[in-house]
Prior knowledge:
Elements: H1 2-16, H2 23-28, E1 68-73, H3 93-110, E2 114-117, H4 127-137, E3 141-148, E4 160-163, H5 171-188, E5 198-200, H6 210-213, E6 218-226, H7 230-235, H8 239-258, E7 263-268, E8 303-308, E9 330-333, E10 336-338, E11 341-344, E12 349-353, E13 362-369, E14 382-387
Parallel strand pairs: 1-2, 1-3, 3-6, 4-5
Antiparallel strand pairs: 4-6, 7-8, 8-12, 9-10, 9-13, 11-12, 13-14
Helix pairs in contact: 3-8, 5-8
The structure holds zinc ion.
The site of zinc ion has 5 residues, from loops.
Amino acid sequence: xxxxxxxxxxxxxxxxxxxxxxxxxxxxxxxxxxxxxxxxxxxxxxxxxxxxxxxxxxxxxxxxxxxxxxxxxxxxxxxxxxxxxxxxxxxxxxxxxxxxxxxxxxxxxxxxxxxxxxxxxxxxxxxxxxxxxxxxxxxxxxxxxxxxxxxxxxxxxxxxxxxxxxxxxxxxxxxxxxxxxxxxxxxxxxxxxxxxxxxxxxxxxxxxxxxxxxxxxxxxxxxxxxxxxxxxxxxxxxxxxxxxxxxxxxxxxxxxxxxxxxxxxxxxxxxxxxxxxxxxxxxxxxxxxxxxxxxxxxxxxxxxxxxxxxxxxxxxxxxxxxxxxxxxxxxxxxxxxxxxxxxxxxxxxxxxxxxxxxxxxxxxxxxxxxxxxxxxxxxxxxxxxxxxxx
Length: 390
Ligand SMILES: [Zn+2]
């Protein structure tokens, strides 16, 4: 904030001295090169408002606990590029992206989500570096925060949320995008919408957005509103409006988590026998039916996954019922769809794949997809199994 104040002071001083026309001053006071273009707010602005009547934490937000969320505020370190990603009066996108991300972090941390930021300052990062932060950390969700721009159409202002490639590229990307978009719709209440707000990044670039292309985790990119819209640009300078947007994103993520985040866990690779407890973690329930799946009955080439619908572990009434849509289960080995067996004993779900021909030695990629009863797809669907042919 200091730099802006110094610049304003300098400009005011020179204007008072009647020097506003001097070429040097034009550069010093150039709004298209300015920094700290948002209206100042104390560091604890959001933290003091989280959970108040205006920004309540809904009870279902408890399901965000321990979800690993990487927030990526777009751009940064780019103020010296004259006019780069700025609104009509020079408000910088990099700054609004960062503040929305910081406010969103405050909401998420209040719900005990694990949050990582790709940047917490006005610094330059490559798209690869941003994605690598999420990938290396093993994020469950990777959310890129942007605001949109369009040339010569100042009246345009609506929300879009972007996914990578084709719709089937990673189904969970669409879940994340959909929930974020709905949260933004509620919070911003922009008068205009685009009729299909989830967009493929292939519409913009043949290979999509680099940050989404390099993401190996569930990822989406928000273009929450247009900073080229003159009124929206002024709103985006205000801490209150940034907080409202962050709250919408938070509510979207909380609804997503509440609907269950499905996961799969590899519990037996080819050549391995199923652990005596079926690979179930400590304290998992066993049931007489689970004896139907024992190591001795499994072919040596079998690959076994335990599925988690993201809901059953809550032990709600009816938790023993199947909450996975059976027809949505698909397994692919090295991209080829293969048959599977699905077994639910009321306490856990097992998915078994027995390749009809032995897999060649070496690494193989296995993709496991399914939807839970709320139509949410698997967060981390890719596994590598090593086949030892000796
Ligand atoms: Zn952007």
